[in-house]
Amino acid sequence: MGQYLPIFAMLVLAIIFAAVSRVVSQLLAPRRPSEAKSSPYECGIVPDQGPPERFPVKFFLVAMIFIVFDIEIIFLFPFAVVFRSLGGYGIAAILIFTAAVFESFVYLIGNGALDWGPAKHLRRSGVVSPARTATSTIRRVGLEGRSTEEAA
Length: 152
Known about the structure:
Layout: H1 5-28, H2 35-38, H3 57-110, H4 117-125, H5 134-137, H6 148-151
């Protein structure tokens, strides 16, 4: 029990400090709210419209991608440390886990989690064809009138 006494003392001191700071700030803080003090501060820009009612789903999809890869790293690191002692069962388990992570990634990409900006609008409007490739769209400058051996 004596080895935990410093940790317990530090915890008690932290709680006391937080409580005293809260009480002192409530007692000494000036209370003169105004329109300027109550409005949100955005780098000096005066807000001309209210916040939107809902966030686009894209924000949540990006957050899901972060969580998926965060969890993947958390589980793959211990596996990498002890993979030799796990044998075939460990390999099978990690392959199933990797397949589930890949499936969730494919689902998120399929729902447009990484479609941002003008490319998304061009893709939806049909301007950009899925059959478009670099060889079909890049014009080779200065190759007119040259043989194929000189161009290579």
